[in-house]
Amino acid sequence: IFRRSKKYFDLIKTKLKTEKKLPEILTKTIGYKETIDFLEEKKFSSIEELKKEIILKTRQYAKRQMTRWKK
Questions:
Q1: What CA–CA distance (Å, rounded) separates 23 from 49?
Q2: Which residues, at least 6 apart from 34, have a Cβ–Cβ distance to it below 8 Å?
Q3: Angstrom distance (rounded) from CA 59 to CA 56
């Protein structure tokens, strides 16, 4: 999860620098809103806080999936 979140953050940074509008599918992924808030300096004071938040949301999503599969 940690490696995935770092790759994701780097992808968002690169895309924002090179494109005016991000693909819609990218805007619906876990961590998108948090990354934008970080880049606009709205919510997180450090990249470590951002990474922790993305990891937390990813784990919560994985838990929901596992719960759904058990039913």
A1: 25
A2: 43, 44, 50, 53, 54, 57
A3: 5
The pLDDT score that the predictor gives to residue 1 is: 66
pTM above 0.90, yes or no: no
Distance between CA atoms of residues 51 and 57, nearest Å: 10
Name the token pair of 1: 């999860």
55-66 pLDDT, tens per residue? 898 889 989 988
DSSP 4-71: HHHHHHHHHHHHHHH-SS--HHHHTSTTHHHHHHHHTTSS-SSHHHHHHHHHHHHHHHHHHHHHHHH-
Q: What is the mean pLDDT of residues 10-22?
A: 74
Q: Which two tokens stand for residue 13?
A: 């940074």
